[in-house]
Amino acid sequence: MKEILFSKTHEWIQFLDETTVRVGLTDFAQSELGDLVFINLPEEGDEVLVSESFADVESVKAVSNVYSPVTGTVSKVNEELLDHPELVNESPYEAWFVEIENVSAQHEFLSEEEYEQFIHEEE
């Protein structure tokens, strides 16, 4: 499995190649949200911008935005999550939201160790 990197807005990112990434919600984020009951995803072909909301998730606690860690075009949507949002709670690093191609800008990403330290400092 390719390395997973993290954003400070609690999304994970995995580079599939030089200009294509897969994005999901971190284990920390899903545990803070609680049981997810609905996910609203973008459409294939939608443009996403770094630091802008591209999806939202509804849990038993609240509705939260999911922010794009990159600028690019949505090339794939994980439609399985539309019917089974609980997959994010069960396997957050396998339940990816979207694949984004033609990545032209990106956040500064954290390694797993840096992300764990970031979470610890926030608490």
Structural description of this entry:
- There is one protein chain.
- This protein is α+β, with helices and mostly antiparallel strands and 123 residues long.
- 22% of the residues lie in helices and 41% in strands.
- The strands form 2 sheets. A 6-stranded antiparallel β-sheet has the order 1-2-3-9-8-5. A 3-stranded antiparallel β-sheet has the order 4-6-7.
- β6 and β7 (63-67) form a beta hairpin.
The residue ranges in which pLDDT falls below 50 over 5 or more consecutive positions are none
Helix content: 10-25%
For the biggest β-sheet, the strand order reads 1-2-3-9-8-5
Radius of gyration: 13 Å
> Distance between termini?
30 Å
Average pLDDT: 95
Lay out the secondary structure.
Elements: E1 5-6, E2 11-17, E3 20-25, H1 27-33, E4 36-40, E5 47-48, E6 53-59, E7 63-67, E8 70-77, H2 80-83, H3 86-90, E9 98-106, H4 112-122
Antiparallel strand pairs: 1-2, 2-3, 3-9, 4-6, 5-8, 6-7, 8-9
Keywords:
22% helix; 9 strands; 6-stranded antiparallel beta sheet; alpha+beta; 41% strand; 123 residues
